[in-house]
Design a protein that fits this description.
two-stranded antiparallel sheet; alpha+beta; 4 strands
Length: 149
């Protein structure tokens, strides 16, 4: 007695695995781009290379997908986290003005230190609940041969 149809089942499972990965990658890319766009919107630097350097991408290493958003502009870390001995804004209550940039009634804060003005963390805080809900529903969106499962 032989088993028939097992090759088709194997193909279907491979297709399913590819569909899951494709669906996750698409979802991750959507979210990292949303996070990057929101970080750009919150970035206190209105023009220049810093703001336009904020982007998102999805990386795959082995069987793991990772969504990343950020910037390679080195000066943005000082805007996000500030420098030592300074007044600190928080994710919940970020500083909304940048006295050093605006030059209105500014003081030398701790010998010229930069105040904290989070924008990457603010983007995360705004989106993390919706992102979690969206990822919980990813299985409903994965398709096998054009049909939702």
């Amino acid at each position: 007695m032989g088993v028939t149809g097992h090759k088709q089942i194997d193909r279907d499972f491979r297709d399913y695995a590819k569909g899951v990965e494709k669906g996750l990658k698409k979802k991750f890319l959507k979210w990292v781009n949303k996070l990057a766009n929101d970080a750009q919107r919150h970035c206190p630097v209105k023009t220049g290379a810093g703001r336009t350097s904020i982007h998102g991408m999805v990386e795959k290493s082995g069987g793991t997908l990772t969504g990343v958003y950020g910037s390679n502009a080195k000066h943005l870390v000082h805007i996000e986290f500030g420098t030592s001995r300074i007044k600190v804004g928080t994710r919940e209550e970020p500083l909304t003005t940048w006295p050093a940039k605006e030059a209105t009634d500014t003081q030398d804060v701790a010998g010229g230190a930069q105040e904290t003005m989070p924008f990457m963390r603010v983007a995360w805080e705004e989106n993390k609940t919706a992102l979690g809900k969206d990822l919980k529903n990813i299985g409903k969106e994965v398709k096998l041969k054009g049909k939702k499962i």
